[in-house]
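Good morning,

Attaching, inline, the backbone tokens for the sequence recovery test we're adding to the shared suite. The designed sequence is right after.
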């Protein structure tokens, strides 16, 4: 479902789906590993804004999906 949504600020560059994402300790770089057997580093000017935008985008999904556990539904509770 999520891979069909068009987000204007998405990271583009992998030819396959993303299998793993890691954030640098300073919050300025995101590392992604793809099923196309590539890894990429992405500069992020403001990780807090990126997390807020992502959590705002996921809010309804997290709150209304009956297949998620309570801890999953609270994934973004501390992101403000």
């Amino acid at each position: 479902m999520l891979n069909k949504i068009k987000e204007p600020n998405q990271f583009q560059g992998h030819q396959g789906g993303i299998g793993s994402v890691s954030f640098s300790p300073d919050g300025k770089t995101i590392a992604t590993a793809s099923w196309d057997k590539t890894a990429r580093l992405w500069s992020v000017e403001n990780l807090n804004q990126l997390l807020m935008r992502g959590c705002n985008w996921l809010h309804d999904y997290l709150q209304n999906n009956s297949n998620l556990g309570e801890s999953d539904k609270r994934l973004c509770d501390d992101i403000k």
